[in-house]
Amino acid sequence: AQSVTQLDSQVPVFxxxxxxxxxxxxxxxxxxLFWYVQYPxxxxxxxxxxxxxxxxxxxxxGFEAEFNKSQTxxxxxxxxxxxxxxxEYFCAVQGxxxxxxxxxxxxxxxxxx
Amino acid sequence: xxGVTQTPKHLITATGQRVTLRCSPRSGDLSVYWYxxxxxxxxxxxxxxxxxxxxxxxxxxxxxxAQQFPDLHSELNLSSLELGDxxxxxxxxxxxxxxxxxxxxxxxxxxxx
Lengths: 113, 113
Hints:
The complex is a heterodimer. By secondary structure, chain A is an all-beta fold. Chain A has no helices and twelve strands. In chain A, the strands form three sheets. In chain A, strands 2, 5, 6, 10, 11 and 12 form a six-stranded mixed beta sheet that branches. Chain B is mainly beta. In chain B, the strands form two sheets. In chain B, strands 2, 4, 5, 6, 9, 10 and 11 form a seven-stranded mixed beta sheet that branches. In chain B, strands 1-3-8-7 form a four-stranded antiparallel beta sheet, with no helix packed on it. Chain B starts with a strand and ends with a strand. In chain B, 36% of the residues are buried. Chain A binds chain B through residues 32, 34, 36, 42-46, 49, 51, 90, 94, 96-106, and chain B through 2, 4, 31, 33, 42-43, 45, 48, 50, 55-56, 58, 90, 92, 94, 97-99, 101-107.
């Protein structure tokens, strides 16, 4: 079984400042890792995913994440946030041999003008 | 637009009643997943179907059932509804399973009164 811990439930940040949203996972098998974003009253949209290869993954809207196997982490970063980035962000893991995603509790990013 | 269509978008019903949520996956996707999102439990995996067959069950109550039809659309049936079943129910789909991007619909808001 897999589990995901998102260490911060809420992260306020000023516009144009950098941000890091933290995600740690636990799994007894190899995993694939995902970040999804949920804007208010909308569904989940994939930001980026790590399947294999380079540990630095770039996604949409200027976001990137780095897979660190030794620390079992997959933190999401953006060098300069915009008001439109205000949303809830979910880290998810898919274990090898399984199909469903296991999600963290989510981190609400609030960008302050 | 993810290509996953869910109906209805909003539903209000009374305790003890039964409702059916419908999902049309993206064209070509054989896997359908159902998730429940609530404030206290977060995003919980309910069930996964692949090409009409049940593949995995998560935290799905016995009062809930699902099926995937030959045309690949899926329905989630919720019966003997309780106040605690009020949540956002997501349908998602993918081409097959492992390592494939899972696309989410915009969800069906269920309110039990």
